[in-house]
Every structure is written in C-alpha cells, then in structure tokens.
Design goal:
Shape: globular
Mean pLDDT: 92
Strand content: 15-25%
Number of strands: 10
Number of helices: 11
Distance between the termini: 20 Å
CATH class of the largest domain: Alpha Beta
CATH superfamily of the largest domain: Bordetella uptake gene, domain 1
CATH topology of the largest domain: D-Maltodextrin-Binding Protein, domain 2
Length: 321
Amino acid sequence: MISRRALLASSLLLPGGAALAASRFSSPPDLRLFIPAAPGGGWDGTGRAVEKVLRETRAAASIQFENVPGAGGTVGLPRFVGMRGRRNLLMVSGLTMISSATTNRSPIAVSQLTPIARLIGEVHVLVVPAESPICSLSDFVAAFRADPKGMSVAGGSAGGTDHMLLGILAGALGIPTGQLSYVAFSGGGPAVTAIIGGQVKAGISNWSEFEPHVASGRMRAIALSGTERLPEVEVPTMREGGLDAVLYNWRGVWAPPGIPESHREELATLVEEMTRSEAWKRECGNRGWQQLYLPPAEFTAFLSTETASIEGVLRQLGLVG
C-alpha cells in the first residue's frame, strides 16, 4: 500500500524532480506489451492507454499485445521471466501481482524482473446499497464495530486489493480479521448485483468500477481510500473520517530480467517522457487515474517496502503463514 510519504515523494518527481535516463532510442521502436491478465481488465486497460499515447506521440513505431491470464497474473509471470534478455518488451502489472504471488506461493516473483516505472493508481470506494440505513462513514464504523460478522462486504477475489482494504479498515478499528465477513466474487458484475440487490451490506472496488452505479443512485458511496478527494467527486476520504486507511491500486511496467543497462535506460526514458506528455495526462484524467510515476531506482525501492506491507496485511487476513 502507498503511504502518504511515498505518495508525496512520487508527486515531487513530476514534472521535473527526477533526472531523465541517459539513453534514448535512436528511432521509434517496435514494442511488445505483455499483459498477465485477460483483455478488458485494469492491467489491459493500462496497457491500451500506454499504446494509445505512444502511438499518438509517435514514440513507438508499432505495438503488439500478448495476454496471458490466470491466477492474478501468476500464470503469465513465469512466461515473462522466461523471456530473459528480450528487448523492446514491457509487462504491465501492479499491486495484485504481488499479493497473488504471495497467496499462491508462486516460486516466481516480480523481484526477479527489471523495474521500469510505476505509472498510475486508482482509489477504492466503500459503498452500500441505496436503501441502506448507513449514510456516512461514521454510520458504517458504528455498525461494523457492533457486528463485524454481520457486516458482509462484497469485493473481488480473496487476497485482492478490495479484501486488503477491508483488512486495513478492520486493523484501524481494532477489529480482529477473523471476524470479517468478506464475500469474494470473480468479477465486478456479480459483486454489483449482490450489492444493489441487498444480498450484502456493503462493497469495495475501484472507484471507476462503482462510479456509474453511484451516479445512477443504485449505490451510496461512503468513503474513498485515497489521501485526498478526487476532483469534482463529493465523496470524503477515510482519513477525513478519522481512519488511517489508505490504498491505491497502483500499476506499473517491468522489463524482463537480464536486459543490458543501456536498454533499461532506453525503456525508462521512453516511459518517463510518455508520462510527461499532455496526451498521458489527458488519458489519466479521462480514466480517473492518479499519476504516481516513479522512475526505476525509486520504483525498485518502493517495491521492496510495498511487498513487505502487502505480505503483512495478507498475514493478518490469514491468507499466508
């Protein structure tokens, strides 16, 4: 999870805080984007945004995609590691890859890859059905404390970011994670149905996934998981309600292991210049993403602390030994 200090540090890196890598491609490269997930999901959407901006800015001559879905990215991860030394190749992934590798006890980890950049993050939102008597975060906290097991919360797969945020909330309130009633769904559609239909008391997901249902009046947004409110969104943060619960579902890009340092610098410069472009800023704004760019060295350090934080939350949830 991204701490306030890490978030502020990353914001200082745009637009001029980090030194540009020394090497640039002599001509726009032919790139391949590897997505360890099915088309249509968050990682794939991030990859498509990268493709759109690199084409628009003419920074890449061509871009091809390869999607390898399964087990939160841990099916595709070994394949990507096996592409050792391959040039002009980037994998788009994020926080869930780390948690999935941990819960699935994968022998392969992102620490074996070549970090290029952290790109963006999405905040999560805590919602309740429109007919719920819960109208504010204080109402939710009171009901949650009174009957933790009775406060059923829908979200994505066990151990994913939705589940982790519930664990962080429980920790902030001193509620034992063994008393949580988390209802995991394999996709956003079934979770939405369960929430709107009142089959669960609340739900957690990325803001972008639940926002249309909040706008339609079928869900009530209680609080966001960011350090500050989203622009033009009148939903308070959990910190505003006195809960130290911050989580961004961040995404980044990696290269395979074993590439030359000079090529890592070429890829890093390509990605950094993309994040500085007006086209990228516009794309992030349109998709409700917060820009959380970190260059290779800072991204590598972040991954070390982030992995430890994720493993700690998953341990509290009883998902790892």
